[in-house]
Write a structure and sequence with these properties.
Elements (H helix, E strand, L loop, with lengths): L2 H6 L3 H7 L2 E2 L9 E3 L32 H8 L4 E3 L2 H7 L7 E3 L1 H7 L4 E6 L10 H13 L4 E6 L3 H13 L2 E7 H6 L1 H9 L3 E5 L5 H9 L7 H13 L4 E3 L6 H20 L6 E5 L4 H15 L6 E7 L4 H4 L1 E6 L8 E6 L21 H8 L4 E5 L1 H15 L5 H20 L4 E6 L7 H8 L10 H8 L8
Parallel strand pairs: 5-15, 6-7, 6-9, 7-8, 10-11, 10-15, 11-14
Antiparallel strand pairs: 1-4, 2-3, 4-5, 12-13
The chain binds pyridoxal-5'-phosphate.
The site of pyridoxal-5'-phosphate has 21 residues, from helix 7, helix 13 and helix 17.
Length: about 475
């Protein structure tokens, strides 16, 4: 029977189960972001001043962020309206599609239904513009003319550069050196948007010069790049700093992913039994998971939620839940989070966006409350999963996203073993078009896997600040 006949002979529910894309109209794009803080059974631990170790006041954060973002950082309101100019830009690529991975399901021989939310349709190729756009908007509203930032994978630097060009803000990006060397085209894209991109550690800042004096070949880390960006921002009242992950307001902006996915899962007449996301600083994971988590906390259906991280930077699975600095130079406030120690430099493995020593405090807190599970995988098994996904679904995932793909595949294989028809939803947070050098290294057998022994981890953690909180 031809494919048209097959469709003609199916009823609408069968058709839904054969459908591949679940698309929302622009008019259906959420008008509010969702804030998990409103539904938490226990509030977040306080953020502490790095000097006094007393809870920070909003004014302490003013050298770094505009007041609108500081207010979003601390609010416990459930819904925050997305400003119209932000929604207007979101319309360039949002609502993002939700796909049913029919071909991957078939390749795995699983009875599970696999759905993925695809964030690679944004101009930068990932979820990062979801927060870059509002951050640039609120800074511009506050009269800010220059933003500094860090980037690991290059995705965030690209996103903020794009946002800067739309809102007439100059952007300086400190790109972790290993990623700067591996991805020259990311830099070219940032420059196309008019931004300045510098390899970190750099000679531009006092802290960069100090790191280079100790080790001229330092490959860099997100912690060091953050210190450099913060150092420049605090020196000039017209310059502020923007962070691409970790902070509450970033997670808030990313909630649009899960809010759209909820509508799309309803369109598919399914609800996820399992939700999977990869975690670097925690923002794309929170984006897909928090709206569902909040739904369950308010008495709705409960999904099992799984965070996937690299075993070379195992923050959630092997880090300590403690107060720590967000950067290597200890200029940022102290937050309670899962951390490997702010001096931790992960090996130069390719998932550059997952190389952060800490985890979003809100994600860490949710983990402590038992609201989700965390697993870790080595990079080679993640590339293997990404290649299987690409061969069946066509999209070449970013190396970071491969961790979520691997997590979803493992869940689908569990369903196969247990004969369960569960619904799995994962966040395909970005494409890998700028990461082909990493794929080439993988195909050439040049990638190695790194697991830390307890002694190495203990050493990295020995520098944690002692905090009486
Ligand atoms: C494609 C992609 N996925 C994931 C991440 C990790 O960040 P987060 O955990 O904040 O989503 C990054 C960070 O650069 C990224 O570029």
């Amino acid at each position: 029977m031809g494919i048209l006949n097959t469709y003609n002979n199916t009823n609408s529910r069968d058709f839904l189960f054969m459908q591949t894309k679940f698309l929302l109209e622009e008019s259906q794009m959420p008008k509010y972001w969702y804030n998990l803080q409103a539904d938490l059974p226990e509030p977040l631990p306080a953020v502490l001043h790095p000097g006094t170790q007393k809870p920070v006041e909003p004014s302490d954060l003013e050298p770094l962020f505009p007041m609108a973002l500081i207010e979003q950082e601390v609010t416990t309101e459930r819904e925050i309206e997305i400003p119209e100019p932000v929604r207007d830009v979101y319309n360039l690529w949002r609502p993002a599609p939700l796909y049913r991975a029919h071909r991957l399901e078939k390749a795995l021989g699983t009875p599970a239904k696999i759905f993925y939310k695809y964030e690679g349709v944004s101009p930068a190729g990932s979820h990062k513009p979801n927060t870059a756009i509002p951050q640039a908007f609120y800074n511009r509203e506050a009269g800010i003319r220059t933003l500094t930032t860090e980037t690991g994978a290059g995705q965030w630097g690209t996103s903020l550069s794009f946002a800067g060009s739309l809102f007439d803000i100059d952007v300086t990006v400190f790109q972790v050196r290993v990623s700067y060397n591996q991805k020259p085209y990311r830099r070219a894209v940032m420059e196309t948007y008019g931004a300045k991109c510098v390899a970190s550690p750099s000679e531009l800042t006092e802290f960069g010069r100090k790191v280079l004096a100790e080790n001229p070949d330092h490959t860099g880390s997100l912690g060091i790049a953050i210190s450099e960006a913060v150092e420049l921002a605090v020196q000039d009242p017209n310059t502020k700093y923007a962070l691409g992950s970790v902070l509450n307001h970033v997670l808030l902006h990313q909630s649009i992913i899960g809010l759209e996915a909820m509508q799309q899962m309803e369109m598919a007449d399914c609800w996820p039994d399992v939700i999977v996301g990869c975690t670097g600083g925690g923002s794309n994971f929170a984006g897909i998971a928090f709206p569902f988590m909040g739904h369950a906390l308010r008495g709705g259906e409960k999904s099992r939620i799984v965070a996937v991280e690299p075993s070379a930077c195992p923050t959630l699975t092997r880090g300590k839940y403690a107060y720590d600095y967000g950067d290597t130079a200890h200029m940022t406030p102290l937050t309670k989070m899962h951390t490997l120690g702010s001096g931790f430099t992960p090996p130069g493995f390719h998932a550059g966006g997952l190389r952060y020593h800490g985890m979003a405090p809100l994600v860490s807190h949710a983990k402590e409350l038992g609201l989700f599970d965390a697993v870790s995988y080595t990079q080679r098994e993640c590339f293997e999963a990404g290649v299987l996904f690409a061969k069946n679904e066509g999209i070449v995932p970013a190396p970071e996203a491969n961790h979520a793909v691997k997590g979803a595949i493992d869940e689908a294989l569990r369903c196969k073993r247990e004969g369960k028809e569960e619904v799995i939803l994962f966040n395909l947070c970005g494409h890998g078009h700028f990461d082909m050098a990493a794929y080439t290294s993988y195909f050439a057998g040049e990638l190695s896997d790194h697991e830390y022994d307890e002694q190495e981890l203990a050493m990295a953690l020995s520098g944690l600040p002692s905090v009486n909180a």
